[in-house]
């Protein structure tokens, strides 16, 4: 196999002349630390104090082996601590069972999302032996959690980022699969789910603001596809099920999990709406769409649910995760901002904002599950060259009037997820995130005023190195020391 015998590694290294490949280099040290970071422009707002956490795949190689997909590597959690003395960075790998075993052997031993190891798959291996804890990170009940989506959550020390271990929810049984996109509503309750397409089981968890699992419910769902994200409203949970059909036999025959699903547009997009208080279910249908991420949802007095998500006509854009690991990229149009309306009478409809090719939608944490207008996302502008991956702009989209307030960094950057930041009670005044500067081949931290993205960053801080491309993050308002 090319990923294992060195061929993929050699192909990638032959393409290192492309500056964006700096974001897919393997990070072979366990720990990073630097700071105070150099301010490249602007200043740090006095009201912005806390920690910006991020997670993402980072250990792409061991020896001559190189993972075949950009989402496969062990997770490294980053912490940007913002205080009166400046910004300091720390990064540390999550010490999962997989990471510890492979570090000891100095070899890639375990099948992952898109890279199969012969004879090992989710049918014959405990899922937490395969857990890479590399998708997202969140602070809940004063605990920092590193999240994958097929296995358990991992608890970390918020200050040192050292791994405490698999999160023990004291629920009497394993709380897994535990998705990487939990939702915390206005009461402080965490809602989350786990999608198990192998067994056709969707599990929903309700966790109190004290960290106790109050309830969980399992649903048998015919032809359950892999589900990455969901939405909550005041009274309901909403699951968008893309027309993907999971084939267990493909796993058994040696294919990776990512290649065990087939696109079946004739199935349409099934929408499952579950009441929070009674667990009763109602099904709706939308046109066939591929989508990973949902920004938010809310429901009106008539029971109509409105939500935004990033939807694509097909899953083609996901295929770039394989080619990028060889240092190759050719753009295929991905998801666009999509607005859905799900009516209590069973009807449902979609509106595609085709002009906004985008991803990584987030809202102010204070409005999760309630009426909202602003969605923060990454935008790929029409002028971006087809051979450059990723996004070049941050965008604030208004779901009411469809207005877009954007800032484009240009072709010299790859822009990563940005999130809302601010002090409790003051609203999300700021937007914070990272970009890869293709000229310096180093990562930069950028800060915007949330109400005026188009004015550009109010502050930019530079790291002395490039961080591997990450996935999802979280800002926690707290003292930096």
Structure description:
This protein is mostly beta strands and 481 residues long. The termini are far apart. It has one domain: YVTN repeat-like/Quinoprotein amine dehydrogenase (Methylamine Dehydrogenase, Chain H, 7 Propeller), CATH 2.130.10. The chain has helices at 2-5, 7-14, 97-105, 248-252, 320-323; strands at residues 31-34, 38-42, 50-59, 61-62, 65-66, 74-83, 86-93, 136-140, 143-147, 154-156, 163-166, 183-184, 190-196, 201-207, 213-220, 231-232, 236-241, 244-246, 261-263, 269-275, 281-286, 290-299, 305-312, 336-342, 348-362, 374-379, 393-398, 404-408, 413-421, 430-437, 442-449, 459-462, 473-476. The protein is globular and about 55 Å long.
Element layout with pairings:
Blueprint (H helix, E strand, L loop, with lengths): L1 H4 L1 H8 L16 E4 L3 E5 L7 E10 L1 E2 L2 E2 L7 E10 L2 E8 L3 H9 L30 E5 L2 E5 L6 E3 L6 E4 L16 E2 L5 E7 L4 E7 L5 E8 L10 E2 L3 E6 L2 E3 L1 H5 L8 E3 L5 E7 L5 E6 L3 E10 L5 E8 L7 H4 L12 E7 L5 E15 L11 E6 L13 E6 L5 E5 L4 E9 L8 E8 L4 E8 L9 E4 L10 E4 L5
Antiparallel strand pairs: 1-7, 2-32, 3-6, 3-33, 4-5, 6-7, 8-9, 9-10, 10-11, 12-13, 13-14, 14-15, 16-17, 17-20, 18-19, 20-21, 22-23, 23-24, 24-25, 25-26, 26-27, 27-28, 29-30, 30-31, 31-32
């Amino acid at each position: 196999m090319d990923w294992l015998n060195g061929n993929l590694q050699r192909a990638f290294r032959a393409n290192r002349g492309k500056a964006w490949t700096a974001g897919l280099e393997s990070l072979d040290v366990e720990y990073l630390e630097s700071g105070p970071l150099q301010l490249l422009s602007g200043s740090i707002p006095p009201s912005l104090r806390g920690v910006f956490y991020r997670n993402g795949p980072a250990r792409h190689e061991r020896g001559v082996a190189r993972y075949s997909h950009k989402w496969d590597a062990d997770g490294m959690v980053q912490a940007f601590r913002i205080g009166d003395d400046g910004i300091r960075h720390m990064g540390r790998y999550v010490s999962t069972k997989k990471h510890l075993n492979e570090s000891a052997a100095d070899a890639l031993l375990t099948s992952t999302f898109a890279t199969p190891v012969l004879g090992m798959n989710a049918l014959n291996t405990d899922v937490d032996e395969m857990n890479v804890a590399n998708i997202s990170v969140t602070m809940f009940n004063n605990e920092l959690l590193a999240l994958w989506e097929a296995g358990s959550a991992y608890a970390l020390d918020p200050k040192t980022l050292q791994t405490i271990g698999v999160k023990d929810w004291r629920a009497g049984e394993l709380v897994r699969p535990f998705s990487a996109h939990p939702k915390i509503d206005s009461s402080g309750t965490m809602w989350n789910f786990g999608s198990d397409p192998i067994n056709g089981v969707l599990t929903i968890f309700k966790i109190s603001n004290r960290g106790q699992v109050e309830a969980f419910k399992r649903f048998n769902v015919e032809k359950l596809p892999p589900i990455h994200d969901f939405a909550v409203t005041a009274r309901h949970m909403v699951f968008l099920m893309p027309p993907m059909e999971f084939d267990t036999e493909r796993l058994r025959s040696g294919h990776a999990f990512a290649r065990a699903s087939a696109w079946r547009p004739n199935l349409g997009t099934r929408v499952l709406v579950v009441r929070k208080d009674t667990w009763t279910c109602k099904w709706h249908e939308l046109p066939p769409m591929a989508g990973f991420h949902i920004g938010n949802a809310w429901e009106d007095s008539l029971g109509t649910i409105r939500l935004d998500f990033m939807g694509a006509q097909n899953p083609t854009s996901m295929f770039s995760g394989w080619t990028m690991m060889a240092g190759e990229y050719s753009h295929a149009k991905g998801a666009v901002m999509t607005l859905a309306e799900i009516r209590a009478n069973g009807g449902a409809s979609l509106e595609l904002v085709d002009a906004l090719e985008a991803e990584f939608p987030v809202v102010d944490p204070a409005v999760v599950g309630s009426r909202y207008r602003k969605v923060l996302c990454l935008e790929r502008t029409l002028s971006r060259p087809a051979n450059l991956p990723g996004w070049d702009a941050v965008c604030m989209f208004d779901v009411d009037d469809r207005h877009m307030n954007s800032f484009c960094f240009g072709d010299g950057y790859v822009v990563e997820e940005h999130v809302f930041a601010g002090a409790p009670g003051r609203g999300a005044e700021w937007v914070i995130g990272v970009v890869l500067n293709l000229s310096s081949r180093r990562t930069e931290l950028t800060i915007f005023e949330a109400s005026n993205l188009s004015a550009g960053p109010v502050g930019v801080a530079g790291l002395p190195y490039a961080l591997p491309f990450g996935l999802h993050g979280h800002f926690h308002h707290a003292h930096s020391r």
